[in-house]
Amino acid sequence: GFFLFLNLYKYLILLCNSRAAEILYSLALVQSSKSEKTRVFPSVDNYKLLTEARRNLGLFQHHDAITGTSKDWVVVDYGTRLFHSIMNLKKVIIDSIHILILKDKGAYNYDASTPFLKMDDVQSSQDSLPHKTVIKLTSQPRYLLLYNPTEQERFSVVSVNVNSPRVKVLSPLGKPVTVQISAVWNGATTVSHEAYQITFVAHLPPLGLGVYQLLEVQSSEAVLADYDIYMRNSKQEKPDRLFKIKELQNSVDNIILENSYMKLWFSGMSGLLEKINTKEDGKNHPMKVEFAWYGTTSNRDKSGAYLFLPDGDAKPYIFTDPPIIRVAHGRIFSEVVCFFHHVTHTMRLYKVQGLEGQSLEVSNIVDIRGEYNRELAMRISSDINSQNRFYTDLNGYQIQPRLTMSKLPLQANIYPMTTMAYIQDIGVRLTLHSAQSLGVASLKNGQLEVIMDRRLMQDDNRGLGQGVQDNKITANVFRLHLERRYGTDVNEEKASVSFPSLLSHMTSSFLNHPVIPMTTYADSGVPELLSTFSPLTSSMPCDMHIVNLRTIQSKVDIEPSDEAALILHRKGFDCKFSNRDMGLVCSTTQGKIKVHKLFNKFRVESLTPASLSLMHSPPDARNLSEINMSSMEINTFRIRLR
């Protein structure tokens, strides 16, 4: 159940940003103790909100919660708790950034009724997808704050919605940046002129903030995206007062997108991916994306919340009319969007140097609320000679090889994927990174398949007492990443463990820790802000991840103490992949970090090792000046910042 249900709620967990809130709160707490003016920071109230959010997230990990094996009304209660936690964590993030980003801390003034910032997305109820707010522009610059939750310096593509296409974006250094303007669509073919999506590449410090400025100008240098819409009854030119939109008939010709790393071919009939050419070696790789349905058996025992009992192999997803296909060509990204009856499928290619240009962003908005005993899967077929072997991650930490066995029934060959799954042969590895946990299989050589949603009408006699009919419209987000392998040997294929490449780890980190955009709540009269806030002296090593920096509760009451838990994880990675020209803005240091060089604005007063759960300190625990960790280890330290 965990891997196939409640995808909407799992998507919400990603949006919870509980780690970002914990880290920002810990830094804001230290900042607030530095002067009298900043002591009005609502540290106790926010600590209570953090604690409650932590408990709600923990509750949702219950074996009948995240698995979807609860009655409908119980699921609504879980969803409502998550929804409240998201609201509360947003408040903690906003309050914490307020105190950290002010240039003159003496001007700090906390007013509970008017927040200093607002997030760029709103969610109307616990069972709906969030949507972006529209930022109103004037000739006066409007601050756009971008928070980078990863511990490495980052170049990331950021999109926000604004109310005017005459836009200029200034970087934290005050220089104009290249902007792409894309249409915001109502449905498949109608352009909304109430909002415009602007996209640019942001450069952000590790765990830090960059303050960009948006303003309306008479003549904008932003580049408009062009659109081709493939549909049955097409008129040649579709008049629009801003965008160039061509309407075409669905055709047997391919749709082509490319950037400096790869070239992609899509079918002109279905809009689905067919082939990738990697420019590094000039090779073509067949890469067919398709959808498929699973039914359930005609026996007495049928699929339900616990059981997957398919009626044989999946049937291809057949559409009588070709879908509407909308192709966007832009300076920063191009994309192909296919509108099928049950799924809106988007493949986006970023035309940027570095990490984001090297993988394909795939998103599916799935709606099977009108179906009867059916399950929808996305399948990727390649010519990789995977020999029935594929790899999935356990809890985002280790990767485990899986073997598809023909002697087992189909359902026994489906495995959980928490953050990634891959197949490989001597020359290449194809990784599917995921932002939500799902079930994955590799039923044929060179194939990966992900089950996206299930709708089952009957109970399967395991104690739930109902079917699975509370489906929601769900967003699934993936990254598809093809890499070359060097110097592999045959014995390695039989090893019991495998590791992602460094680039793969970073791609997964970008996907699971997206940049958080915010704007100032007031249009004018905003006090002066720092142009950037960088709490770390430099990027952490590429293989080091700050799992959390969490303020420890005081022993007396539900209020914060002056200590925090710094939890670090050193990732294991496979060296048989090139790291040259990958756009990684960090290095590796064999797991060593100098403590006094860690933080920039704050001084480390003490750092002592503790057990993972902070319950125990070793008897010889003393103040460390250097952190030294082996690969694949997680360590917890008690840290005091000043």
TrEMBL record:
Entry superkingdom? Eukaryota
For the biological process aspect of GO, one term held by this record is: N-glycan processing
Q: Which GO terms describe its cellular component?
A: Golgi membrane
What general EC class does the enzyme of this chain belong to? hydrolase
Reaction(s) the record says it catalyses? N(4)-{beta-D-GlcNAc-(1->2)-alpha-D-Man-(1->3)-[alpha-D-Man-(1->3)-[alpha-D-Man-(1->6)]-alpha-D-Man-(1->6)]-beta-D-Man-(1->4)-beta-D-GlcNAc-(1->4)-beta-D-GlcNAc}-L-asparaginyl-[protein] + 2 H2O = 2 alpha-D-mannopyranose + an N(4)-{beta-D-GlcNAc-(1->2)-alpha-D-Man-(1->3)-[alpha-D-Man-(1->6)]-beta-D-Man-(1->4)-beta-D-GlcNAc-(1->4)-beta-D-GlcNAc}-L-asparaginyl-[protein]
Q: Which cofactor does it need?
A: Zn(2+)
Q: Where is the signal peptide?
A: 1-20
Gene3D superfamilies given for it?
Glycoside hydrolase family 38, central domain, Golgi alpha-mannosidase II, Golgi alpha-mannosidase II, domain 4
**Pfam families, per this entry?**
Alpha-mann_mid, Glyco_hydro_38C
Q: Give the Gene Ontology MF terms in alphabetical order.
A: carbohydrate binding; mannosyl-oligosaccharide 1,3-1,6-alpha-mannosidase activity; metal ion binding
Q: Where is the Glycoside hydrolase family 38 central domain?
A: 17-82
Q: What is its EC number?
A: 3.2.1.114
Assigned keywords, A-Z: Glycoprotein, Glycosidase, Hydrolase, Metal-binding, Signal, Zinc
What does the similarity note say?
A: Belongs to the glycosyl hydrolase 38 family.
Q: What does this protein do?
A: Catalyzes the first committed step in the biosynthesis of complex N-glycans. It controls conversion of high mannose to complex N-glycans; the final hydrolytic step in the N-glycan maturation pathway.
Name of the protein in question: mannosyl-oligosaccharide 1,3-1,6-alpha-mannosidase
